[in-house]
Every structure is written in structure tokens, then in C-alpha cells.
Amino acid sequence: MLALSGCDQGTPLAVVKAVAAGVPSLAPFFDERSGLGQDAQVRSQPVRGGLQQGDTPGLYGGSKQPTVCDVERLEQFLADRRNERKAEAWARALDISADRIPDFLERLTPVLLRHDTLVKNHDYKKGKAVPYNSLLQAGIAILVDRQGLPAVKCSCGNPLRPFEGDTSRISVAFENGNKKWQGYEHASVVAVRPASRPLERLALVDVEQPERGIQRPVGTTGEDDSTFDTRERRAVPDLTGTTFGQASRRLADSGLAAGHDGQGLPPAGARVTATDPPAGTELRFGEYVMLSVAGGGSGGGQGATPQGPGEGTSRGATTPPSSPSGASGSSGSSGSSGTTTPPPPSSSGPKPPSSGTSGPSGASGTPATPPGSEPPASSRPPGSRPPSSDPPAAPEPPTPPPSSPSPASDPPAGSPPQVTSAPPPGDPPAPSNPVTTIAPPPTSAPVATGTSPTTSAPASGEPASSGPAAGAPASSGPVTGEATVGALT
């Protein structure tokens, strides 16, 4: 207990200001009474994990009332010359230029929070946007970007960015009229991470009629909504062998949420080894499927860099597929999100859960060596010879190592170059007078057993031999243990 206490004391708590629904901000960018947005009374819903991806079905809510956020009026305020300084500060907080504000607003979509959500909020003080961490109560109307990240608080126009701290290490300050609201639970607080792809539509839940789902195209305010029944059962797809990013997208397309029991979100390249419940189980819209993963590759998750709002894509997040699909479309709209058939065994394939390994061999980007192929040079043991394409040489008879080998010396000037390959470490040293070894010409006389056209190692206590001279025929008599020395010509 003392060790845990000391560890907790070493990790400071992030101070977070509570922002209750319907309570005016003390230093807003625009007057809360100007009609920019209207909050609702929504009780925070239970959630699996403090980090949620922006395309999670049911993460946000909607309403039959289409004007929860008046985007056109906000654009008019920011374009007004009397608010020029305010517009510049607003744009800098969102990392865009002031001239791109209209294009940026066209990409945003109004929604209602269904969870108490952590964000980096901004007040407007002395001509500048002053950032601070805040907890927005469920029911607050916001604008989200194309990756599902909160971007603007509707009622006051304050710019929002992703919360960057640890959701489990916060200290919420309920002050300035923002009293602790009914239903607040620290365990149900969430922070949103960008979806791994630009979204075409958001899958919402009607906050007044939860059995009614809303498909809202990105960049619209409700006029193009379509509805569906959230009570309809949806089968869990077979996700074993896919990556976490692929599994998350396929679940979102099916109207189900991806969950993970570990801290944070796994890397997008981590391989899914199992799902709970298993494939084929039927769930209602927005219910969680817990993913077990092994290892990880590149990309996203908790470490994904928040989006640069002007681009509509994540800076440093995983690369979106070429044909992004909606949040809860048909199975045929998943595009490159993955397939139900696990990939064939390869360097990037998953390992069985019982193997006890932390990830696949190809998780770090280096593929495993297939059977029968040569390993790379860096993977050969020290001292081993590199592979050769030449046919193997005839085996030499084993000879005992010399007890007193002659030290190797440089060849004299003018000597022919040595063409025999260098012996591996541990072999006897080369003879002091290297010569060119040439195989004897074929003769009718049989060669005695044990002879070799190559230079043999000398016996113990005998001087090193230079082998037969170039062009000299091999002896047909029996080998006596001494080599014939020929003169080089």
C-alpha cells in the first residue's frame, strides 16, 4: 500500500473544470443567449473504457430538433469584421488559418453528448484563446469533425480540442455554478480519439427515444437524416486474424462498438486473437464487443495524433482506407477494413493465444523467414559462412589439428594468387607458401582411396606441404601420409 501511495503521489492529477449543460461560460467567445446552440437533459450512459474512437456507434446522440447548433449563425459571427480579432484567435486554437473558417465549418456535424466527455476547452480573454481542461456534461451540444472529434461547443462557440491527459488521473472542479450533476460517475468519463478514417456519416442515438437510431451525413445539420431501429439484432463478425483498426471499422459498420480491457487503445496494427462475445453472437446497436489482441504494428490507438481540423484527417493517425464507409453501413461497405477470413499464415499472422508471446513475428515490420529461405546476414550466427550459390565441394577426409602450426605469413612478391577459400574460424592456418591448387587431369590409373586433389592439412609434427605443382599428375600409388612437393613454373 505504501508503494502504491508513493506511485500515485508521483503522478499529478490533471485539474479539470466541470461544465454543466445549460450553464453559461464565464468567458465565452460569443454570448450564450445568441441562439448558437441548445443543450439537452441527458443522463450519462455507461461505457467500456475511458478512451473511445470517434466512429463508435452511439457515442453521440441526436434529436428530432435539427437546430441543436446553428452553424450558419456561427459562421456569420466569425466573418463579421467587428469580430475579426476574435475569429483569428478562434482559428489559431483549432490550428487553421482565419480564411479557412468557412470551409472548416462546412465539414462539422452537430451532435449531443451521451457521455460526460473530457476536452481541451478555450475561453476568450484579452483577445486570446486561453486553453483549459474541462469535463462537458452529457447533453451538451457540440460540433464534431470528420473523424468524430469534438471541435466546437455550440452554445458559446468555444473551440474544442482533444483531451491529452490520463482519463483516470483527473480532479474535477465543480464551481462557478457548475454543480455536480445527477448521474456523474468518475468511471463513466470518456475522452475521444480520432477515427482511423474520415467518416461519411455518424450513427447516433435519439436522446429522447433510444430505440430510434439516426444516420446523419457528415457536414449536415439534420435535414438529411435517416432512421433505423436500434433494437434490431446484429451478428458479431468473425474478426480473428484482422488488425485492431480493421476490426474497429468492421464493428462500426455493423453498428457495434469495439472495446478493450487494457489501458488505452491498442495500436491499429495489433492482431485480434479473440472476441467476447464470439463471432455470430447477436447484439443490439452500440453494444460492445471486447477484442483480445496480441502484439502491434504501426498506427493509431491512444497514441494517434489528433486531427488538424482544416484537413479533415488525422496528423499521424493511421492511413484511412481508399474507400471509407459510413458508421453503420452494410457489410459490403467496409471496403479495405478487413475480411471475415483470417489471413494465411505469414510473418504478420497472429500466433495462438496459448503461445504466450506478446505479438507476431512481423509486428515490428521485419517479416519472419519462411522455411527453406536463407536468413538475412544480420541473423546468421557469428563466424558462420555466407550462403553460396556454387555446388558443394567434395568432402575432405578428417585430419587431426596440428600441434605446432606454422604461423601464417604474407605471400612473397610475384607468387600466384591463392584461389582456395579462406578456412572458417577454428580451421588450421594456411601454409606459409600458398600455391595454386589445380585438380589433376583424368588418367587411366585409379586414384588411391583417401587422396584429394586439394591441399591436405599436415600431420602432427610434420611441416606444412604446398601440395602438387600446377599441372603435375597425381600419384597413382598409395598415400604414405607425405605429400609430393612440386616446383612451381
Amount of helix: under 10%
Rg from alpha-carbon coordinates: 36 Å
* Overall SS class: mainly beta
Low-confidence stretches: 1-7, 297-489
Mean pLDDT across the residues is 72
The N- and C-terminal alpha carbons lie at a distance of 88 Å
How many helices does DSSP assign? 5
Got a strand count? 21
Taken in chain order, the helices and strands follow as: HEEEHHHEEEEEEEEEEEEHEEEEEE
Characterize the main sheet: 7 strands, mixed
How would the global form be characterised? globular
Indicate the proportion of strand residues: 15-25%
Describe this structure in words.
It is a single chain. With 489 residues, the chain is mainly beta. The protein has a domain at 11-233. 9% of the residues lie in helices and 19% in strands. It is built from five helices and 21 strands. It has helices at residues 2-10, 71-79, 84-93, 101-106, 244-253; strands spanning 14-19, 51-53, 60-62, 109-113, 117-125, 128-136, 141-144, 150-153, 161-162, 170-173, 190-193, 201-206, 212-217, 226-229, 234-235, 257-259, 271-276, 282-283, 288-294, 307-308, 313-314. The strands form five sheets. Strands 1, 2, 5, 6, 9, 10 and 11 form a seven-stranded mixed beta sheet that branches. A seven-stranded mixed beta sheet has the order 8-7-4-3-12-13-14, with no helix packed on it. The chain has a three-stranded mixed beta sheet with strand order 16-19-17. A hairpin with a 5-residue loop joins strand 12 (201-206) and strand 13. It is globular and about 60 Å long. The N and C termini lie far apart (88 Å). 37% of the residues are buried. Mean pLDDT is 72; it is low at 1-7 and 297-489.
